[in-house]
Amino acid sequence: MSILLPAVLAVLLAVIIYYLLPSRSRLPPGPPALPLLGNLPQLLPSPLFLRLHSLTSKYGDLYTLRLPGNTIVVLGSARAQADVLDRLGAVTSGRPRFVMAGEIMTRNLLYVFMPYGERWRRLRRVTHEGFNVRACAAYYPFQTSEAANLVLSLLPSPSPSNASPQSLPDKLKHASAASTWRSLYSGPSLTAEDEERVRRVDQVGEDVLKASMPLASVVDVFPWLDALPQWAAPWRRQGEAWFSRTDAFYREMLELGRRQEKGVEHHKGFIASTADSFDRFEVTEQEAAWTAGGLFGAGVETTAASLHVFVQAMILYPSVALTAQRHIHAVCGGRPPSFDDRERLPYLQAMVKEVLRWKPVAALGVPHVAEEDVEYRGYVIPKGTLLMGNIWSISHDPAFFPSPDTFDPTRFLDEKGQVKEPFPDYHDDTVAYGAGRRICPGRDFANNTLFIDMAYLLWAFDFAPGADKRGMQVLPDPDKYQDHGLMIHPALFPYTLTPRRPDLREMLASAL
């Protein structure tokens, strides 16, 4: 204790001086900061993305926040994000130092936290080969089959009133997990044993998300504590034990995928189809295991949450659902939709874009960090500054989207009803997936899953509000959320899905 006390006092004194002395920095202006706490009180208690959005309205699309241990520059417009994270990506693609989540718990093997460098580039190339636009076509059969299974799981039994609010996100997550599982590891749909593996992947994701949140770990607030010996660092012992368990689990999943793919002649998943790439880029067994496991964990959560947003929108905007159903009927008739129909369903393509814009579930993304001093708009953003593209503000910018809180797919269609070219600086297929060199490599796969699942749900069901315990109809509240830190979900709502055809079960069972 006698050794730590002077160091703690020195840090506190430095922080107080930092906040009390007039700033000589050329950082963008922002809200006034308090000693020690910085701007932390201004970011509580509501969801962080909404607080940052309100600050964007007040301070503009480029402003600075100070938090204990970090300086953050928030990018609140498509132009600011494109300029800083895309055009200056060579020096703005770093990641903050996540001591607990990145270094101790995952040993920088998890792609999302991995420092920008040689390992990141190797694994990026492999992932791109397995999930680029053309490669993703190989996964269509898995995604289509699991879209049909999703409809079957949602068929009322014996009546729509038996559906609980929690059952919807659970079933959407199961469908997302099944299509992602098969597309990564080949093989059949999820077995009971696989379900337990999915549960463990979910838990891994939750553990990492919690550890990566600001102020979640003392060693992230005071990184110099990482130099303490093992006996004085209980968080390190816990993190290293967590890593050992997770490493063994991810390696087990990789081996399982390799066993499954041996019996599959067609429709092989990522592990099988990129085996040569893993060898060519000298990817180790451990790196391959964590790459696949990390893709699985990240993809399932975001896609399931976006599908939940879609159902909410269909209940709140029945005319949009009806329009989409008319388009699907005109193209497909009585048969289920397929990926071959996509080019003839521009309205549904626009709906996918609008779901991602209206309620982006990764509302803040993951912060970048400047690896060199960056000059922009006359300001200087120092090396080491966190750069946060506020996806929520970007996708609700009225300069691009009049009435941004309204769900309206036609904003992405031209006068002929065809999908518009992307707006300058606003990449409407990708903005929800981050920016620059850190953009999500699985975005095409995720968009494909959203398209086919949304198409099947619209083809199969009519959407209506559910009822509360008193039998009163309840509309979803679009302004309520479940805050999961880096992820948001719609607040639970009752719902009613009514089959649009009496023989759905038989039609889909024969197609599987």
UniProtKB/TrEMBL annotation:
The keyword Cytoplasm does not apply. InterPro entries: Cyt_P450, Cyt_P450_E_grp-I, Cyt_P450_sf, Cytochrome_P450_fung. One of its GO terms (molecular function) is heme binding. Keywords: Heme, Iron, Metal-binding, Monooxygenase, Oxidoreductase. Its cofactor is heme. It comes from the Eukaryota. Heme binds at C440. Pathway: Secondary metabolite biosynthesis. Belongs to the cytochrome P450 family. PANTHER family: P450, PUTATIVE (EUROFUNG)-RELATED, P450, PUTATIVE (EUROFUNG)-RELATED-RELATED. This is Cytochrome P450. It comes from Calocera cornea HHB12733.
